[in-house]
Amino acid sequence: MVKINKDDIEIIRKYFLCFDKGIRNQMRHTLSGTLFDIINISVIEGGFIEGESVANIASKLSISDSSAGEIEKIRNEYYISLAQLYLEGESNDDLVEIVWCQNPIFKKLLNDMSDDKSFEKDMQSAFISLHRDEMKRLFQKLDEEDEFELSDKEIKAAITSVEREAMIKRFKELDKIEERGRIFKLITRYAIAACLVGIIAGGSYLLLFTTKTDRFNKLAVKDSINNRPGLAKIETTAYIEHAESKRLVLTDQSGSGFAGNVKNKYSVIIKQNGLSSQIDYYRKQLDSVTEKRIITVGPGANSINIQISRQIDSLMKILNTYTYHEREKMVELNISRISVVKNIISIEPSDMSFFYINIAGKYYLIKASETPVKLIPVTDNKTIEALQRIEFSNE
Amino acid sequence: MRVVRNNDESNYTDAELVNILKESTGGLDVLYLRHKSYCVNFMKTMYKDHEELKDIYHDAVMVFYEKVNTPGFVLTCSIQTYLNTVCRNQILKRINHSNRYEVKTAGDNGDIWDVIADTLSEIDDVNNERIKTMKKVLEEIKESSSKCYELLVRFWYKNQTMEYIAAKMEFSNSDSAKTQKAKCQKQFKTEVYKRILSWSK
Q: What is the DSSP letter of B155?
């Protein structure tokens, strides 16, 4: 098998694409003894002109398949060149021979190449088809990207939608809880209000009109109320301070002064009512009822407020007052807090309608009175000295 | 196919997009994505087979693109309207309501009527061996980044005049553009026939 190298292929190409007979003869002469002794160029020439198959030509020359492929390329270029020359209106010996031999391959080529219109139409179709294939690939790629790619806008919209739905759900739940709580509050507070009215009414009555017994009771409100979620904290107990004692009335023991030598000894019952805690308690109740909206609706709302307010007012009115029931020899002190009553002093023992009381170092004149009288500290120095002298004389 | 990515679709009006498409394929992805969901949703109301809708939309966009590149094309309605109409016609064809017919559609102002081609233009049998060979050769020329490809595309595909091509490709005049085009075409032809002849062993 003869293998033709690249340089030899190039020589053969130049030989066939050069249609000048003179140059061809010169090439034959130059290459005889070398290439053209190995490759019988006339066999190739004859085969090309007559339209012999490249396989046959290769067989005759005993050349390798790869070399045969190169010969085929040369043939194709040779035919195309000749066809172009023909279409341009030119001619040469090869062209004449090839046409005369009715070379079928060349004939078909010539027909195809001469039909420019058909070629151009096919060319246009090729462009269109090519672009459509490209567009289709582009669109498929865009579809794939579009399916997996979410724009920022879409992501935001999706997240917003999810968050809003979650919020709406939560709001509905809170609404339900609040509704349940509201109904329960309403029921509970109506109950408390009813209790308060009863307590206030009863307490007021007892405070204002009853003289004998301990009118004040420890008030208790159910502690469980404070356990209700969302409710205002209500003071559960209000201790009403009170103290009662019986005290001997001090008189002048010095043997001088106004008393003379009369040594009347008598006692006075001292009752103390510490009103501050009670007032505080009602004030808190009032706060709870009004400001904290325990009861804002219903027929009892206003009257409860008024009741409590009146109670506070009435307590304030009697704060720092006293009553002195002469017949019972009982003094009732309405003060802020229970204080130490040091002494009860009488300047005029024969006259039990009045005396002085020493509370925490201050002296107050107590006169018989069924109605509350303001406790006013004694400021007169002479009286204070006299009272101090009596206290001293009794020590 | 060179793709110009422009995430901000609001940049182009319909008219601007048409001008871009006349020059290159750069605006194709913008055109495609901008109108896709509307068209597909529009078709869903008419056609059950949703698998085909994307293909129909592909064809509609190609129809529009090729229409834009025909000489003398003027857009007389919105691109959306045009695409919707083509899609609708495609669907109607598929459900055998009509074969090929002219469709009148209202333009944006409601007064202008236009004839919209409802399908891709017919091309010769793409399985024709010569056309197949041509496509391969064209792809090779394109890959070689040769000016020949652009020249031939502008003339044979975009149907542009030699004067326009000369201006766009910076030839000195239309004659030199013509000469270059002839050379390119000859080279192309030679290469195609070389390949065709290789079948005839």
A: I
| Beta carbons of B200 and A105 less than 8 Å apart | yes
Residues of A20-53 as b/e, b for ≥16 C-beta within 10 angstroms? Answer: eeeebeebeeebeeebbebbebeebbebbbebbe
A317 touches chain B (CB under 8 A): no
Q: Which residues of A touch B198 (CB under 8 A)?
A: 72-73, 76
CA B44 – CA B40 distance, rounded (Å): 6
Which residue blocks in A88-151 are alpha helix, DSSP H? Answer: 93-100, 104-114, 116-148
Average pLDDT over residues A208-232: 45
Give the model confidence (pLDDT) of A133-180 as tens digits. Answer: 999 999 999 988 877 665 666 677 787 788 788 888 878 887 887 788
Residue B57: closest CA among chain A residues belongs to which residue?
A139
What is the DSSP code string of A347-379?
S-TT-TTEEEEEETTEEEEEE-EEEEEE--B--
| Nearest CB to B156 within list A109, A112, A123 | A123
Chain B residues touching chain A at CB-CB below 8 Å: 1, 3, 25, 28-29, 32-33, 36, 54, 57-58, 61-62, 65-66, 120-121, 123-124, 126, 128, 130-131, 134-135, 138-139, 152-153, 156-157, 186, 188-190, 193-194, 196-198, 200-201
Strands A237-238 and A219-220: antiparallel
Rounded to 10 deg, the angle between the A41-50 and A93-100 helix axes is: 50
Across-strand partners of A137? none
Report yes or no: B64 and B73 within 8 Å, Cβ to Cβ: no
For chain B, how big is the Rg over CA atoms in Å?
A: 20
Measured distance CA(A213)–CA(B76) in Å, rounded = 106
Encoded tokens for B52: 């085909």
What's the confidence (pLDDT) of residue B113? 33
| Residue B178 in this model has a pLDDT that exceeds 60 | yes
Determine the 3-state secondary structure of A5 from DSSP: coil
Give residue for tokens 């009103």: A275
Estimate to the nearest angstrom the gap between the alpha carbon of A206 and the chain centroid. Answer: 56
Q: Which of A12, A90, A94 is nearest to A46 (CA)?
A: A94
Rg, C-alpha atoms of chain A: 66
pTM equals: 0.53
* Mean of pLDDT values over B90-105: 59
pLDDT of residue B29: 87
